[in-house]
């Protein structure tokens, strides 16, 4: 499960970077992707501790 959260986080961060810097397609969606990625990483860290 921990590996899956990191994979999801990486995909969301890549999507955020793509949307923010290469092809902006909606400001709100980009920031939602970033927040979801951060939450995924935090959940992985919290569950590991």
Automatic annotation (TrEMBL):
It holds the Pfam family DUF5670. The chain crosses the membrane at residues 5-22, 28-46. InterPro entries: Lmo0937-like. Keywords: Membrane, Transmembrane, Transmembrane helix. This is Lmo0937 family membrane protein.
């Amino acid at each position: 499960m921990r590996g899956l959260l990191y994979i999801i986080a990486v995909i969301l961060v890549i999507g955020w970077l793509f949307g923010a810097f290469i092809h902006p397609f909606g400001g709100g969606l980009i920031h939602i992707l970033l927040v979801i990625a951060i939450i995924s990483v935090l959940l992985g860290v919290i569950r590991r501790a």
